[in-house]
Each structure stands twice: as structure tokens, then as C-alpha cells.
Inverse folding.
């Protein structure tokens, strides 16, 4: 376990030291902003739910987002209680100041991937693939900004996969009945 913690810290420090480039700071802040309070993902889910052709994807997205967010922010964050990297590692310099609460799992990553998994599964690939790429960018932004460890992001992806697959399977069962 100590090895994983060390690797987690080393990867985050590598990102901060080798990949940060000041002209890109605003770009990565903007990508991360898409996950603030889930507004972008809620908005896209509602838009899809309002269109009869994409209603199933929209409703499933909202369900996956709610389920994944509950698991992430209510259950896992309070069970693990992992401090954010900048709270325990003085060498980590966060590029945003409004990150608060526990670090594991990343809520931004959870929300982005919960929606992306649903879109990828239920919508044409020309729509699902760009959203999946956007989810990857949101996840990376949390590392770039110094507010999460890599394992927090991985935990968010796993949580999102679980929540989205449960929502998709539940919808499928509902449609069969």
C-alpha cells in the first residue's frame, strides 16, 4: 500500500513539474469548470432527455450521474476521508483555490465519466467518442490543477463505470417490463 501511495505522489509531482505550462493554465481551469457542481453534465443530460430521439440516453445519463455522485460524494469520500494533495504535500501548488472536501474519489471525474460511459454506450460513436475524450480531459485537469491524486481520478472512473452500468442495466430491465 505504501508503494501505491508513493507512486501516486510521484505521478502527481511529475505532472506538476514536467507537464504544467503557464499559457495552458486557463485552458485546464476551463476544462475543470465543466465539472463544477456537475452543471455541464446535468445540462447535457436534460437536453438529451428533452429530445424524443435521445430521451433514453438523457434519462439514463441523469440516473447514472445521480447514482455515481451519491456513491462518490456521500459514501466513498466520507469512508476514505483522504485529504487533498496540496493539504499534505507542501510541494504541490494548486492552480485553483475553491477545491474543498475530501480527495478520493474525484467527483469531477466521476460525473464526467458517468455521463461519458452512458453516451458512449447509448449514442452513436461520433457523439460518444468526443464526450469520452472530454471526460479524459476533465480527469487530467484535476491532476494538472493539483487538487487530486491519480488514484482519486482512477477511483472516480471506476465509480462512474459502476454507476453508469447499473443505470443502463436498470433502464434495460425497466423497458423489458
Amino acid at each position: 500500500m505504501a508503494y501505491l501511495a508513493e507512486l501516486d505522489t510521484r505521478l502527481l509531482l511529475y505532472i506538476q513539474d514536467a507537464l504544467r505550462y503557464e499559457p495552458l493554465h486557463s485552458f485546464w481551469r476551463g476544462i475543470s469548470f465543466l465539472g463544477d457542481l456537475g452543471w455541464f453534465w446535468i445540462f447535457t443530460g436534460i437536453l438529451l432527455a428533452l429530445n424524443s430521439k435521445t430521451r433514453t440516453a438523457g434519462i439514463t445519463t441523469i440516473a447514472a450521474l445521480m447514482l455515481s455522485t451519491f456513491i462518490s460524494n456521500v459514501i466513498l469520500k466520507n469512508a476514505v476521508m483522504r485529504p487533498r494533495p496540496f493539504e499534505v504535500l507542501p510541494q504541490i501548488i494548486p492552480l485553483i483555490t475553491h477545491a474543498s472536501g475530501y480527495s478520493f474519489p474525484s467527483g469531477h471525474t466521476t460525473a464526467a465519466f458517468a455521463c461519458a460511459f452512458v453516451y458512449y454506450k447509448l449514442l452513436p460513436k461520433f457523439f460518444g467518442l468526443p464526450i469520452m475524450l472530454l471526460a479524459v480531459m476533465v480527469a487530467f485537469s484535476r491532476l494538472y490543477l493539483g487538487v487530486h491524486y491519480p488514484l482519486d481520478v482512477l477511483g472516480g472512473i471506476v465509480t462512474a463505470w459502476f454507476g453508469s452500468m447499473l443505470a443502463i442495466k436498470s433502464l434495460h430491465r425497466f423497458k423489458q417490463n
User: Anything to note?
Assistant: The chain has a mean pLDDT of 93. The radius of gyration is 17 Å.
